[in-house]
Automatic annotation (TrEMBL), chain A:
GO terms for cellular component: nucleolus; preribosome, large subunit precursor. It is found in: Nucleus, Nucleolus. GO terms for biological process: maturation of 5.8S rRNA; maturation of LSU-rRNA. It comes from Sphaeramia orbicularis. This is Protein MAK16 homolog. Coiled coil: none annotated.
Automatic annotation (TrEMBL), chain B:
SMART domains: Brix (SM00879). The gene is rpf1. Residues 1-20, 47-75 are annotated as: Disordered. GO terms for molecular function: rRNA primary transcript binding. GO terms for biological process: maturation of 5.8S rRNA; maturation of LSU-rRNA. Keywords: Ribosome biogenesis, rRNA processing. May be required for ribosome biogenesis. It comes from Sphaeramia orbicularis (orbiculate cardinalfish). This is Ribosome production factor 1. Residues 47-62 have a biased composition (Basic residues). It is found in: Nucleus, Nucleolus. Gene3D superfamilies: Probable brix-domain ribosomal biogenesis protein (3.40.50.10480). Residues 10-19, 63-75 have a biased composition (Basic and acidic residues).
């Protein structure tokens, strides 16, 4: 096909307005040209690479810019129509190259080529900058996996019984004494254990020391009984919890190894034990045992501010 | 033997035929072509089975009552926790090697009381409302925590600055579609970096029956069910977020509970009603974490040395195998 002027005009008459052009994209306001050699990207009489016998573009390939030129002389050789010139990486030098190569070419094409070249260099610079910055990596989620995990999480939550676990842990810590003196509650289990131990020890000691302590024991007991009774009368008026609290305050004090006045200790111990096992015995022996017991208790409770459970 | 077996088969077939209203022997419900009929027969079959099950249960109960104290102990139902595949890295409480490791790892400074935790909370770029609120609430829960807006800064540049200002922790909350979905927890002076998936975030205003806002007291920490070595290291990671000496006056407790590899975080205020009962009231945000990767040094996604990475195909294949 020869590119004479009239021929070119014919081409434009066909593809420009009336008939079909495969590179044309029409929108409401404007039509674009998808031809890769188009300088401006719009579908115009002067920008159409098919309808112009003399044409030039700038394109880039992997960061390298090239100037493509098409002249009438090579119209008969379709494979060789486009002449490719590598442009320098230096912006000004490249502009000069374009000027030199497109010397005596129509003003429109020269101008548009340089504009396109400028745009290309700008976006290449931006690309290089972005690579250096932090990239946000998009990780695709698999819907199936997400659904499965959600269900597993729900089941795990139900199995965890969090409230119960937390309450248990807190009570454990209270028992072990990590909270020290702040809370004064009866620690029933410990009471019973202590009393059991005391009973055992009492029995042992009684076997050894019966001869010595017989008289003293009885004497002390009577006093205790009176005081206990009187105390109990008073206490009956009050509520049980406060009773327990009072008892425990004193017992806790014991447990926390403060040096306590023996009498109050004795009374409280007596009271407490009275409530549970009325057949308890002497205070002096109990004092000794209590000291012994305290030591044991000390060893047991070394308060740790945090406990990690497995 | 054969003849005996045959006889048994024949007997069984005879019984079956009687039971199934003279249907041909070796009959199964799936062979009926008519859908309605098939459905009916299947329902009947199911009812039969249910009846038999109930009868069996009744019998067992009677036997148990009859025996009274001598009855065999009740069978423990199988749960996933019961059936869990024994993990060889489970920590024995008296293991010396573990104790030595923990004495000399990155948290030893904290656990020996030398450093105080100071946490920097930030988000990914351009956080939306929910994430911002979540960050703020986290900052109230964790004492000595500061929230900073991430202005598109690279984590690698933030980290040296944090170290210079004596921060011990860097917490980055990742956001996706206006909802927090990831957490990067980085222990600062060259400590391990853990990456979690965050799910079910409930902010304070969405909590039912919640209490007042948490006070400035240091909360206690509860760490439950961290049994393996990996679990232990994660547990220590969480523990080191909070100051060593909790203020019991504040009666606040932060719980990290691990169940089937999901770590549930809750923040409660407790009160002891008596020595056997404690009441807890939830304040503060709640969320669940799932560990995705644990990396040795500070945050470095490209060249970091990963101690543990979640590999879904290997690790999620068995339902009874858990990592933490």
């Amino acid at each position: 096909m020869c590119f004479s002027l009239c021929c070119v005009q014919v081409i434009w008459d066909i593809i420009g307005n009336t008939q079909f052009c495969s590179f044309k994209v029409k929108t409401k306001s404007q039509s674009f040209c998808r031809n890769e050699f188009n300088v401006t990207g719009l579908c115009n009489r002067s920008s159409c690479p098919l309808a112009n016998s003399q044409y030039a573009t700038v394109r880039e390939d992997k960061g390298q810019c090239f100037l493509y030129m098409k002249v009438i002389e090579r119209a008969a050789f379709p494979a060789k129509t486009w002449e490719k010139v590598k442009l320098s990486k230096n912006y000004e030098q490249a502009l000069e190259q374009i000027d030199q190569n497109l010397l005596y070419w129509p003003r429109f094409i020269r101008h548009k080529c340089k504009q396109r070249f400028t745009k290309i260099t700008q976006y290449l610079i931006r690309m290089r900058k972005l690579v250096l910055k932090r990239r946000r990596k998009l990780v695709p989620l698999s819907r199936k996996v997400e659904r499965r995990e959600k269900r597993k999480e729900e089941k795990a939550l139900i199995a965890a019984q969090l409230d119960n676990a937390i309450e248990k842990e807190l009570l454990e810590r209270l028992k072990q004494g990590t909270y020290g003196d702040i809370y004064n509650f009866p620690v029933h289990a410990f009471d019973r254990a202590l009393e059991q131990q005391e009973d055992e020890e009492e029995e042992e000691e009684e076997e050894e020391e019966e001869e010595e302590d017989v008289g003293q024991r009885e004497y002390v007991e009577e006093e205790l009984d009176e005081s206990d009774l009187s105390d109990f009368e008073d206490m009956n008026k009050l509520r049980t919890s406060s009773d327990e609290e009072e008892e425990e305050e004193e017992e806790d004090e014991e447990d926390e190894e403060e040096e306590m006045e023996a009498e109050t200790e004795a009374e409280s111990k007596g009271r407490g034990s009275k409530g549970k096992s009325p057949a308890n015995r002497s205070t002096p022996t109990r004092k000794k045992k209590r000291a012994f017991v305290e030591i044991e208790y000390e060893q047991e409770t070394e308060p740790a501010s945090k406990t990690r459970t497995t | 033997f054969k003849s005996g077996a045959d006889q048994e088969e024949v007997e069984v077939k005879m019984e079956k035929t009687e039971a199934e209203a003279a249907f041909p022997p070796t009959f199964s419900v799936s062979e009926i072509k008519n859908k309605q009929r098939r459905h009916l027969m299947f329902m009947k079959l199911k009812q039969e089975k249910r009846k038999q099950k109930i009868q069996l249960k009744k019998k067992k109960k009677k036997e148990r009552e009859a025996l009274g104290d001598k009855a065999p102990p009740k069978e423990v139902p199988k749960t996933i926790e019961n059936q869990r595949v024994y993990d060889e890295t489970t920590v024995d409480p008296e293991d010396e090697e573990v104790r030595f490791d923990e004495g000399t790892d990155e948290f030893s400074a904290y656990f020996n009381g030398l450093t105080n935790p100071k946490v920097l909370i930030t988000t990914s770029d351009r956080p939306r409302g929910r994430t911002v609120k979540f960050c703020e609430q986290l900052a109230t829960v964790i004492p000595n925590a500061h929230v900073y807006y991430r202005r598109g800064l690279a984590l690698k540049r933030i980290i040296p600055q944090c170290i210079a200002r004596n921060f011990t922790y860097l917490m980055v909350i990742n956001e996706d579609r206006k909802v927090p979905n990831g957490l990067v927890l980085c222990h600062l002076p060259d400590g391990p970096t853990a990456h979690f998936k965050v799910s079910s975030v409930r902010l304070r205003k969405e909590m039912k029956r919640r209490g007042k806002d948490p006070t400035e007291h240091f909360p206690e920490v509860i760490l439950n069910n961290f049994s393996t070595r990996l679990g232990h290291s994660i547990g220590r990671l969480f523990a080191a977020l909070f100051p060593q000496d909790p203020q019991f006056v504040g009666r606040q407790v932060a719980t990290f509970h691990n169940q089937r590899d999901f770590i549930f975080f809750r923040f409660h205020r407790y009160i002891f009603k008596n020595e056997k009962k404690v009441g807890i009231q939830e304040l503060g945000p709640r969320f669940t974490l799932k560990l995705r990767s644990l990396q040795k040094g500070t945050f470095d996604s490209k060249f970091g040395e990963y101690e543990w990475v979640l590999k879904r195909h290997e690790m999620d294949a068995c339902r009874r195998k858990f990592q933490l």
